[in-house]
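Ticket 4471: requesting a sanity check on a complex prediction with protoporphyrin IX containing FE. Repro inputs:
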Amino acid sequence: MNNTDLVFQSYGRCCRKEAFFEDFYHHFMASSDDIRALFRDTDMAAQRHLLRHGVMQLILYARGMSDRKLRALGESHSRRRYNIRPEWYALWLDALVKTVRAHDPDYTPELGAAWREVLMPGINLIRDAY
Ligand code: HEM
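Returned structure tokens:
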């Protein structure tokens, strides 16, 4: 099985429980006061739902899907809208892998590395639209 398949299946094990997304935002917001402030007025239940799809878009992009949806995220996260600083994406990915480690019973360090490798091209596309 290749890395995109391994990550796709790992995500299937993780995203069954809403707690995965709750824990992700807990870790992500804990990583920086600036990031916590960005979500001060956000409806977090809706945001968790949006992220569920967002992570799937990153995985599907690695599997060859069109970049159209990620380009739209690149636009919304750019300096013209949410103004998400490029260096924050590393914190985002760290928080995600930390959450996968806690939620996927089949987690291994190799699987964590596969997550990083598979998500990186899509994350870079969003970040580089800054
Ligand atoms: C909104 C996904 C990284 C902050 C959203 C939305 C999605 C999403 C799907 C809702 C759709 C939209 O508004 O365009 C992602 C993905 C990321 C990522 C897949 C990883 C590459 C980040 C980072 C930050 C961030 C690194 C902050 C440091 C926000 C904020 C909103 C948002 C502030 C709007 C919240 C609101 O409506 O109040 N993101 N995001 N995102 N994201 Fe991200």
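Notes from triage: The mean pLDDT is 97. Leaving this open until the requester confirms.
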